[in-house]
Amino acid sequence: MALQLIHEPRFAQRTTLRLGGPALVEAVARVEADLDELGALLPTLAGPTGRVLAIGAGSNLLAADGQHELVLVRADNAAAPQVECKTRDVLVRAGAGLGLPRLLGLCQRLGLSGLEGLTGVPGSVGGAVAMNAGSYGVETADALTRVRLWTPGGGLVWRAASACSFGYRHFDANFGANEGDATGLYLVWEAEFRLTQDAPDAVRGRMLAVYAKKKASQPVTAKSAGCVFKNPAGSSAGRLLDEAGMRGKRLGGMAFSDLHANFLVNLGGGTAAQALELMDFGRHAVRARFGVDLQTEVVVLK
Ligand SMILES: Cc1cc2nc3c(=O)[nH]c(=O)nc-3n(C[C@H](O)[C@H](O)[C@H](O)COP(=O)(O)OP(=O)(O)OC[C@H]3O[C@@H](n4cnc5c(N)ncnc54)[C@H](O)[C@@H]3O)c2cc1C
């Protein structure tokens, strides 16, 4: 198998918001050997700007409408995870390209507990690690034992989760001066989770409860990128936006959801320009009313 190169990949076709113009090229790696090829080609592909972005399932990206002088790299290693039973715990090793919902489906079938709180979070395993995706008090980092990272300068390395830093929607591999890559680029290639055994029905019950809670309060099937802003400490960005009058606020084809004010949704025909303007509007409204500066959670590419 060879590294696949897709020219002029459009963000509108790669993101759940369905917004954004083309990048220069997307390099899709399916097997480890593809990464060697990627390392050799990257300087040429990236050109003088040298801008490279790892992309997963695009469920947390808001890309501007115009051309992006950017090379996308994507791990498409989505084979069934490897499962290794220990005494009570189970180690599950999954490719970064695997869909997080598929990993959770496997956990449900095999009766593996630890990730139920992530039910309803779309995206890839790689994206979940890179964003430290979380909900209802559970974060990806909680069950992560180690992560396999690829960098153009350092190749593939396993890194213990304990050597990395995690925060609210934040991951840092903490590469030292002689590790990783000067560009700062890393691609999550695999992740290993430590889960505990439980009855499949019990795991399924918890997942259904999480999903039901989400479905009642979030536009889970709309074209969105999840929460736009981070929750300020001790507060809820959705509540602040709601009380600042943003719920249902519309501009062209984009709107703050009328179900959850922290979700921007593409109602059809929306543009990234409209999304960014609405975000500014919401940020100003919350600052004016509460004196709180909302920080962006969605990854904005301009
Ligand atoms: C309906 C909906 C609900 C959501 N609910 C939640 C929620 O409850 N909690 C939550 O945390 N998020 C939520 N999200 C946001 C999103 O699903 C998560 O952030 C998810 O983990 C992103 O994964 P992805 O593969 O789509 O990453 P992308 O959107 O493709 O990328 C996001 C970031 O991760 C980086 N990245 C992606 N893959 C890799 C990789 N292999 N290696 C290195 N970096 C990589 C990208 O460079 C980018 O910075 C929601 C989104 C939607 C649409």
Short description:
The chain has 302 residues and is an alpha+beta fold.
Please provide a written account of the structure.
By secondary structure, this protein is α+β, with helices and mostly antiparallel strands. It folds into three domains: 72 residues, Uridine Diphospho-n-acetylenolpyruvylglucosamine Reductase, domain 2 (2-Layer Sandwich), CATH 3.30.43; 134 residues, Uridine Diphospho-n-acetylenolpyruvylglucosamine Reductase, domain 3 (2-Layer Sandwich); 72 residues, Uridine Diphospho-n-acetylenolpyruvylglucosamine Reductase, domain 1, CATH 3.90.78. Helix content is 27%, strand content 28%. It contains seven helices and 20 strands. Strands 6, 7, 8, 11, 12 and 15 form a six-stranded antiparallel sheet that branches. The longest helix is centred in the C-terminal third of the chain and has 19 residues. The model has no long low-confidence stretch (mean pLDDT 95). The structure holds flavin-adenine dinucleotide. Flavin-adenine dinucleotide (FAD) binds next to β3, α3, β9, β15 and β16. The site of flavin-adenine dinucleotide has 33 residues, from β3, α3, β9, β15 and β16.
